[in-house]
Amino acid sequence: MTAPKIKIQELDSVVIRFAGDSGDGMQLTGTQFTNTAAIVGNDISTLPDYPAEIRAPAGTLAGVSGFQVQLSEHDIWTPGDAPHVLIAMNPAALKVSLPDLDVAATIIVNTDAFSKSNLKKAGYASNPLKDGSLDKYTVYKMPITSLNRTAVKEVESLSSKGVDRSQNFFALGLVYWLYDRPLENTLAWIKTKFAKRPEVAEANILALQAGYFYGDTTRAFQTRYRIRAASLPPGTYRKVSGNEAIALGLVTAAQKADKLLFYGAYPITPASDILHTLAPLRNYNVITFQAEDEIAAMGATVGAAFGGVMAVTGTSGPGLALKSEALNLAVMLELPLVIVNVQRGGPSTGLPTKVEQSDLLQAMFGRNGESPIPILAPATPADGFEIAIEAYRLAVRAMSPVMILSDGYLGNSAEPWRIPDPDSIPPIIIEHPTAANSDDGSFLPYKRDPITLGRPWALPGTPGLEHRMGGLEKSPEKGNVSYAPEDHQRMTDDRAAKVARLADVIPEQTVFGPKQGELLVIGWGSTYGAIHAAVARAQTKGQSVAQAHLRYINPFPRNLGFLLQRYRHILVAEMNMGQLSLLLRGRYLRDLATLHKVKGRPFKISEISHKIDEILAGAAS
Amino acid sequence: MSTLEPLHLSRRDFVSDQTIRWCPGCGDYAIISQVQKVLPDLGIPKENIVFISGIGCSSRFPYYMDTYGIHSIHGRAPTLATGLKIANPELSVWVITGDGDALSIGGNHIIHTCRRNVDLNIILFNNRIYGLTKGQYSPTSPQGIRTKSSPMGSLERPLNPISLALASEATFIARTVDIITKHMGDTFLKAARHKGISFVEVFQNCVIFNNGAWQPYSDRQLRSDNDIFLENGKPMIFGQNDDKGILWGKSGLEVVELGDQYSEDDLVVHDTSSVTQAWMLSRLTYPMPIGIILDVQCPSYEQAAWAQVQEAKMQKGEGTLAKLFHAADTWQIQPHDGDRPASQMTVHSRLPSNLDEAYMDDLLNDLNESELEERLGDMDIAALKPHAPILVADSARVDHAVQLMQKHNIGCLLVTSADGHLSGILTENDVTNRILGHDVDTHASTVAEYMTVDPVALGLDTPVIESLHLISTYGFRHLPVVDEHGLPLGILSVRDIIHFLATVL
Ligand code: SF4
What we know:
heterodimer; A: alpha/beta; 6-stranded mixed beta sheet; 20 helices; 20% strand; B: alpha/beta; 4-stranded mixed beta sheet; 17 helices; 32% helix; binds iron/sulfur cluster
């Protein structure tokens, strides 16, 4: 009998999810698979899904850790709507992932983990591998744990736990075989990362190879798949998550501004990774300060800005609420700083680990008095890098706090980032005054630059420029306390105008698709990928649909009003109940269709596609 | 900063052009004038001096000083001051605050700023009332005080600022009185010269809303009997005629009359380096301790933070952007040439931080295991002195075996074959799981039918670490010990091993 010949099928993209217990190392497995895909030239987009509880009991639904990756031969913008392939290391992982799967998905399960007690922990009354409930999928049942134990049994000095810890590499080897991926990179990776633990390295290598050979020799699969390389621009790449990209951007801005970076923060999900990324960078002239609360983090950031360093704080919605008081002081003192809000579901404590874009109005208006600040939002994880630099550039120009609105999805998901040449990034030029700025030889702390309307940033330690400022309203130029009616009006106008004037220097809004037509879909922040894919789909169907994704929300790009007139319909899609649409309506008096979602999950491409079709169909009838 | 030229600053150099707007007679005047008077003595150029205040009457202070300054928001001055001091450790940063500002709305910040030992000078204007909001009770107001917001008397017990500063680990703590100007000026000078946090409580009189609140301690006639002016290294004497003193009594500090019974030699000598003494002093109200209560040294926060920057640079080299961008696994995409671009990944040696926590914990726990291995070194089983085993022949009846277990109160029997070699092990678990309730005729069946055959056994020379490995890998609860011929010598339970580990680790 000859073994059946294995087919190789070419795919243009695939979505794979690795899911297991949080002790199974699924993040590592997914990361390795992604790296290898990236190296062979696929475009990638990933979404880790950590358990919400820190130490959820093993085997339970709460303890499931998943990692989803989409690879493609063309540009992709999201980690994919529905996984085509699921690797489930235990019943809970299967149960949690099933509702998301593509209708024709392939499931690889570790049958060893389908014990009575694990089924019970996952809430299965009967074994799904036996009761026919998975019939519509292609299911591969493999005793991964025992296969792996056999594979690594010769490694000495490894505990039984240590042995089983390598089974994720067995699964990875299997998937490498299935997707015709080379092992070399992961082998090299294991050797480097576990150099200090040779027995762990050895076990992982054996497991990886065993998984691969198992696929090769047992012929359990009839088909292998191949995804051809995408044509990414040449260069050196790495992966970055949104939180990392922002952290890297902040350090870059500080170096380009020739300043120490001060990052004052209080731990909060999902923003803490920015703090964690910056804390080890002391040798890059970074000082992180973990404050006693959100208020102190903001206050210290204002104090640091006064002292002349690049001052930044980061938080999430509930933290921003606490920061609003000291942030407003920075508005009044007119000091440059950056505040990063990695949004999560609200109100109150809300959904700490889930994504939402519902802090836009809080960012715009969540302070007492007339208190405008510039607001920027990265569109993709890697975009956080440029947005962070841009934020500081605008902050020092307008002498104002600038808010970056990221979110939990951007913060945690990763994409390839082409590493820029540091020299290609222009410097941020800041001039601190050293001499008086008035005819009578006195220093006027609120004497504005005629073009930017920014005030001079005189630093303590500069002789002759001693000045006092405060949260009380003040007179123009001199900055002395003043409640005079004309002074308050003038200062309020100036504070608004200097923010509005940033529109002169921020880029015009670009559009993807026709410059005029039937429908313009507007979004901001992390919805970029889903909207882009949906709009691209519509365009291939011949529909007249364009996308405008706002990275600058306050002020809006100067051509936005014009753009809104070029399309018959406007759709604003956002993960809130209509906050950007409120701003756009108010500002441009333009009627808009809206698409809202607050389910703690990003938009699916299909959800936006439906809405596009609906609007265009309505327009036709 | 012009440190080379001698500074010729005077009080006038620190007076700003703003008109002071405190009520006539307010204690704040004396305080600002003492601050302005002693600043020139510090030898710090005035551009390096910053006053940061919160909200309240006293918090107008920075406007009246011709230095850098921020009149910030309620209770938050310590946070701004901390950020500023970290940003520029060269500056002399002063926090001006009041009892409401520091102890009520800003309580949390005071605690943590003290604890961090940031090199700031905090001056707490304590007037036991809310002045700016026109007379509500404050966190230091005495219980029962009748104010606009407490017409029937305040229900709250007052906070003791000195005790709070001590509990918050402040390194310089002092108390002074607004109208004892010389003492106040000296105290400010010492506070400013202290490296690290300085916390100075000033008894300040609010003439409008709480006039005379400190009168017993400030009035020229009364204060020498009610206050004790502390001096480091000097015995604690007070009273108009220096006729009273403080000694260590049975339950703390006690006030005594000097004379026949007690002399100066019996008294406590003030020691500003003693936290215990400082704590006792902080609880004392008669006499009221005035002066420096605690003055100890420890590295200041901003110094340590900058030292870390230097240390990191020494260890890792000055960070460049190119280095930063490549501090991760990187790969090349070559210009596209058909099917698969040649590409290679450069692996960074650090494990990525975003792995599953449970998985990482396991990895690290394993590390601890190997640490244990090192400690145990080449100790072997003989060191554990295994108990003598209770033996039973494999041909013995099961009921006999169960009786043996009961009699010796043990959970495990070693089973021997006819020639005396270890042939099996019978445990409580075997009895409960396989025999009891399984309709087994214990009189008719033999141990051989229910024992675990050929158990894993240790020799006296087996390393202890291996027994741990067996326990953790297979979950064994008991391990037999045999000699080189396979004859049973002893038995070890998990508990024995744990007890042993407890003695060596
Ligand atoms: S109200 Fe009291 S504390 Fe305030 S300025 Fe007047 S006297 Fe001074």
